[in-house]
Amino acid sequence: xxxxxxxxxxxxxxxxxxxxxxxxxxxxxxxxxxxxxxxxxxxxxxxxxxxxxxxxxxxxxxxxxxxxxxxxxxxxxxxxxxxxxxxxxxxxxxxxxxxxxxxxxxxxxxxxxxxxxxxxxxxxxxxxxxxxxxxxxxxxxxxxxxxxxxxxxxxxxxxxxxxxxxxxxxxxxxxxxxxxxxxxxxxxxxxxxxxxxxxxxxxxxxxxxxxxxxxxxxxxxxxxxxxxxxxxxxxxxxxxxxxxxxxxxxxxxxxxxxxxxxxxxxxxxxx
Length: 271
Ligand SMILES: Nc1ncnc2c1ncn2[C@@H]1O[C@H](COP(=O)(O)OP(=O)(O)OP(=O)(O)O)[C@@H](O)[C@H]1O
What we know:
It is a single chain. It is built from 10 helices and 10 strands. It has 271 residues and is an alpha/beta fold. It has a domain at 26-107 and 177-252: Rossmann fold (3-Layer(aba) Sandwich). Helix 4 (115-125) crosses helix 5 (130-143). Bound molecules: adenosine-5'-triphosphate. The site of adenosine-5'-triphosphate has 11 residues, from strand 2 and helix 2.
């Protein structure tokens, strides 16, 4: 008789535990950051449901990048907690970071690597095997239109190409959660459409996306949920329909944030 440990059943890896859908993909509580006297993020609470496509919007300087940096382990908060799928980002950074892919705004990439090397490096860093990394890197370069630039140093990439290679590096390990700070900034319309398609099918397969953007029309077309932030505080959060409340997102944004409607003139610019 075979010992139990050698039976085929014992050699089959245990099925992964399905994620508890009641646990939010991202949960922030009392998150705060101050630069000098100015609070950039002011004790912010936020729940991002699993499987949602969450748009995080706000005016310039509202605290979006600071919030997302603290939520993903890139910037230590002054106070508060951030949990990803129930894992505390700051108490268990290694476990939390395994479950997410992050496209950060303004963070230096290893730009002396070529595009292909950068994505490969990101995959290997995540503990993936070389063959899988190689085939996924090729897929990502092809889909994002970077095949011809695969051997070029990232320092010589244009702004849009840099954004796309950073996005590829964030996605290569197929994480449960993607946190993307301004993923469409500087990206051409054809690539933007491709990225949208990739993200939509990723969410349809059970992934969660959180993205920040200034483009209300895009957020309105893509996102199932929206949060509006201003002066470090969350002014509204919920499903797209709850937040826009029968209006369009841009009008709701302007109402909540209290911006002037852009009808001011500069007398000296009237030629
Ligand atoms: N490293 C820093 N040092 C000092 N102040 C900072 C720093 N980073 C951000 N801030 C300030 O914190 C506030 C929030 O900035 P943040 O970059 O989070 O806003 P944002 O919503 O991402 O803006 P944008 O839409 O313009 O990218 C701003 O007042 C900004 O000047």
